[in-house]
Amino acid sequence: MRAVRIAGERQAELIDLPDPQAKGEYVVVKVHATPMCTEYKAYKAGHVCQGIGHEAAGEVVEIAQPGKVKVGDRVVVMPQLPCGKCALCLQGEYIHCEHLDNLTEATGYEGGGGTYAQCLLKQDWLLLPIPDDLSYEHAGMACCGLGPTFGAMQLMQVDAFDTVLVTGLGPVGLGAVVNAVYRGARVIGVEAQPFRANLAQELGAETVIDPAAEGALERLLELTDGLGVDKAVDCSGVAQAQRLCIDATRRKGHVAFVGEAGDLTLNVSQDMIRKGLTLHGTWHYNLGDSARIMQVIRGCGDLLDKQITHTCPMSSVQEAFELQLTGDCGKVVLYPWE
Rounded to two decimals, what is the model's pTM? Predict the structure, then answer.
């Protein structure tokens, strides 16, 4: 089979790998759609690696034993290789598992478990069934396209009474707009990149504020009658944006951090005790909510067609990475067999 390898700084290539074989609970999935995520950062930095990617939708083509799926099932591939036995996994919070499997030790396969590939191995319990009326492209948004911010919306119980602030309108932040709009919330975005700011408004954001403009916080307070937003989601991973979320959220409001980042300074008295904020660190969503995210996907087809701005064959992955570096795109989806 063919897979993507990052060969150096802004260099990507296709390589041939052995076909994986099912073993135990690990089944073989033929990948039909690979949504691209943050792998472009390794491409830009020249971090040589293979087995990249953590989002996919495809078809089960081989199993080693009876289990959760059968050959022919259409599935979404969930990220990571959690143990499936610890308390977190059993509660559906597999994304926080501290005892991850080693794919080579578990299966003997040395080609890696990345999704930028024509086939992959995955535990059967981490494969979500795709309803018959959903395409592979739309279903694949149950990974990072919608998943992390869906988890944030679940934790914060976002509904039609809320004004929601979304900072950082890359592919994940655009998914936050879709999730909030689906729930009937009013959405305000913060983004400097013009293409993505415009796309967010096409997806239903009421307005998008440029964080570089003077008075961004004052503008947010003006839009909320001086009270602040009810809920905020940071998808930028930038400390200034995270700080804006805290400052722009009303007393007793909720803030979710989705974007990976480093240090952020909090004033415990002013930000937490006196303001009464609830802060959430959100990586993904509970497996028990998988049917609900499929319901969101079914109800947002037109929006997802806008959020997925580009599709291309995996053979054009170099061009796809370069596109991501411009920022002039939403979610980009690769087709591994083209």
Answer: 0.96
